[in-house]
Amino acid sequence: MSEYVRPNPDRAVLLTIDTQNDFTVPGSPAEIDGTADAVPQMQRLVEAFRSADAPIVHVVRLYKADGSNVDRCRRASIESGAEIVRPGTDGAELVEELKPAPDVHLDAARLVRGEFQDIGPREWVMYKPRWGAFYRTDLSEFLDARTIDTVVVCGCNFPNCPRTTVYEASERDYRVVLVPDATSGVYERGLREIEQIGVALKDTTEAVEWVRTAPKTGE
Description:
With 219 residues, the chain is of the alpha/beta class.
């Protein structure tokens, strides 16, 4: 792999994308196939990053009841009363397996204002208003302030939010890793396409070892 795209484990952040109850728990109103099956791998990644004192950002969606901050393709459904990742509901919360402690809950008001919610040592939650984690957010500034140049992506529904986040990160010159077995909705053509723009593909076991054995720089 070229030195220009080779990921740096000592300057990496883990981004978990949209792994919230409404998208994950079987039988939930907006369940995405395969997400619950990917949670154990996501949990291993999160625990490895915590053990290595490496930063983690959980990226979430929050749909206001009036639909004002919802994607156009879903706005009519929300306006008609669908309750999906509504602020203040259990469905909007991170799945339990990814939380640093059971009593961690989203501060929806702060998140929608664009603030990063601190939920543990070097661990935060942020809200994104659309598919990609960099669109109309302060994520790039947040990462740059911590000298992070590599993003490791996992989470919910590759065709939409993880893939968009990968492309947004790439166009901002971050080095990018996708962990397919910790991401729902992956498909072969999509993986080959992102490899062609320099994205590294690592399975969970490989990514865990990669971050655990790397020396960590201070924040």
